[in-house]
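[job 0412] stage=complex_fold ligand=iron/sulfur cluster status=START
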Amino acid sequence: MSTTAELIRSSTETGVFIPELVYFEPDALLYPKGKKIRDWATAQGLPISMTTSHNRITDLPGDTELAKYRIAKRTLVVGVRKTLKFDTSKPSAEYAIPIATGCMAHCHYCYLQTTLGAKPYIRIYVNTDAIMEAAAGYIAERKPEITRFEAACTSDPVGLEHISGSLAELIEFMADQEYGRLRFVTKFNHVEPLLGLRHNDHTRIRFSVNADYVIKNFEPGTARFHERIEAAGKIAEAGYPLGFIIAPIMWYDGWQDGYYELLEKLSHAMPRSVFRGLSFELIQHRYTKTAKNIILQRYPKTKLDMQEDTRKYKWGRWGQGKYVYPDEQASLLKDFMYTQIAEKFPESTIEYFT
Ligand code: SF4
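[job 0412] stage=complex_fold status=DONE, emitting structure tokens
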């Protein structure tokens, strides 16, 4: 019998994500995108239910909390985004643009573990027009400054694009915004729907990559490294500004070799012509106490290193601090990455290390 991990891998590796259960909030069906998704789900033969609100979904199958968690990650809820006040998204952008929440992958370290807590199902919002109108308002407020919007703060929207089509709408909308820019990051490789779009260089697509050790141990359900790189090549060919996010950067036995190999492989895989304009964002591994507790319940055998006595506590804005690497380790990681990137990608930009 296949394990959950194998099932997840097979549905994302060989094809696109297909949920097991689909719920609609009633208002969602008043929108063309809602109807389109219902038609798609019907054509796939998926069980469809109505729910008055995503908060009311209490009948997910599963005998244990863990089983319910796994099925929730394969449950799609189609609804209307009510809050059109965008969160900030430092350091990568000014605002987070909300088109979806939740993700079908199972990265052990994912911060959605905490932010989505007991409701880890995938939500797609159908009122993209209202979301884009709100974005236009934010752009107008800041012009002539450029306003950047991050579309992957609460989800991996590339993995959902075949269902939602929302990225395509945002990309074409942003192409016409003199002072607006879009960016998103992904660990998936299904970029075909994005390749022929008019983007006007206003959308930067980044691929999240990591050392083999991290991908192998902590990123079940995502596209493999070579698939992400192949997709990055297609995105570069389609003329999009391209970047890589290396996150979370981990300190483990052999990390220098691991990250050296990663950058070496990247530099050989990408055509030289894309090096100029390539961006890197570097994020060291961190976790909160709450995240640690949730992660250990959901992935009890995880090899994630979360020992407080080897970490530095960094106070957070809302009272909830994070455990990061001590300064000395963080500097070693940072120096190593900066040196390697400068050597292998001299024309690229490192946007930040955090
Ligand atoms: Fe989280 Fe991204 Fe992994 Fe999805 S792919 S589980 S959003 S880290």
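The chain has two domains: 1-80, 81-353.
[job 0412] exit 0
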